[in-house]
Amino acid sequence: MADHGENRDGASASVRVLNHRSEDLDTISSLPDVILQQILSLIPTKYAIRTSILSKRWRHVWSETPSLHFDDFYKVDADSIDKTLALYKARKIMTFQLCATSVVNLPYNEWIEFAMSRNVENLFLDFGYLKYEFPDSVYINSSVKQLRIETKFSELIPRCSVSWKSLKKLYLRCCNLSDESFAKILSGCPILESLTLYSCDELMVLDLTKSPNLKILIIHLNIWDSGPTHIVAPHIHCLTLTLKNYQLSCTFVDVSSLTEAKLDICFSELEDMNVDFLQDMVLKILDKLQNVDKLTFGENFLKILSLAEVRGVPFPMFKAKALTLETMISQYVIPGILRLLRNSLELKKLTLHTMDIETDTIPDKDVSNYLCGLNLNHCWIFGNVFHWNVESKHVASFMELMIKITKALEKMVVRLESYLDGRDFEELLEMVPMLSQNNNVSIEFSSISAWR
Question: Signal peptide position in this chain (predicted)?
Answer without folding.
Answer: none
